[in-house]
Amino acid sequence: MPDPAGAVVNCRHYRPGAPACDLALDAIAPALAQDEGFVWLGLHEPGEALMRQVQAAFGLHELAVEDAHTAHQRPKVERYDESLFIALRTAWMEGDKLRFGETHLFLGRRYLVTVRHGAAAGHARVRAACERRPERMAWGPAYPLYALLDALVDQFFPIVNGLDDHLARLEDELLFRERIDQSVIRRIYRFQRQIMKVRRAVVPLAQVCSALMSTEEDLIPTELKPYLRDVADHVGTVTESVDSVGEIVLTALNVNASLVSVRQNEATKRLAGWGAILAVPTMLFSVYGMNFDYMPELRWHWAYPALMAAAGGLCVLLYFRLRRAGWL
């Protein structure tokens, strides 16, 4: 059912041994008053009026509701009385574009409320997968919370693959191109920004999983905690991969800087070598450009050929010596 300031994507009541049924917002309170089951409400960029209505239906804490409505929250897990508020950053590939968003979750004994902001992908597939496991849905709303966390973490694996592909192209340009123009430098900067954003999204998930595993059993049942530990392992794998990409970028930049320095040194050596060769005839010829009154060899018949031969011979000798030394 649409809302002028936001959207209710889905709202369903789950009870053991009974099929899930859709709920209107005004039917949430009566459903929670029953002795069994839980309610899972999904929202996308809700407005203030809708959030106040949801707050009244579930008895959510005012500060948590304000955070969920405002968005732009750092990843965290906060406990308010008998509920948890969880803020997550999300990321996924949309074609060749890397998208970011936020997902906020309210977890109580009888409910799970998800609030998506920005470009966060929908939870329809996760909900459908959960509904195919009624025996685990009987664990309560903590199970779909785990399923959402697992799906959010899994979205990072295609991102890591995309970063690896982009890194391979940048490595080719950094290591095998003679000159690096400004466009490549700008691409490297944007790539490093992407790595930083992905890292900001994935690294805090480890702390979120740790906080959930240490949560009391009234909200997170014991049988679910091994699954959360598995999600934490996936988070560690993604974090290591992202860090590895960032380190390889820095290594490639350092290698490129070394290659540039080597090429500059080679050019400097060649210039110095040719300068040394040209210095020989310059020195010899400059002597005879002086206006001395007494220079006996000027009147010698073979003076000019001898001078040219000496200059040429010294230049040839110096050329081969420098070439053997690797300066030319």
TrEMBL record:
Q: Which GO terms describe its molecular function?
A: cobalt ion binding; cobalt ion transmembrane transporter activity; magnesium ion binding; magnesium ion transmembrane transporter activity
**Catalytic reactions of this protein:** Mg(2+)(in) = Mg(2+)(out)
Q: How does it sit in the membrane?
A: Multi-pass membrane protein
* Gene Ontology CC, one term: plasma membrane
Query: Any idea where this protein resides?
Result: Cell membrane
Which positions, given as ranges, span the membrane?
271-290, 302-320
Principal localization reads membrane
The UniProt family comment states: Belongs to the CorA metal ion transporter (MIT) (TC 1.A.35) family.
Q: What is the recorded name of this protein? A: Magnesium transporter
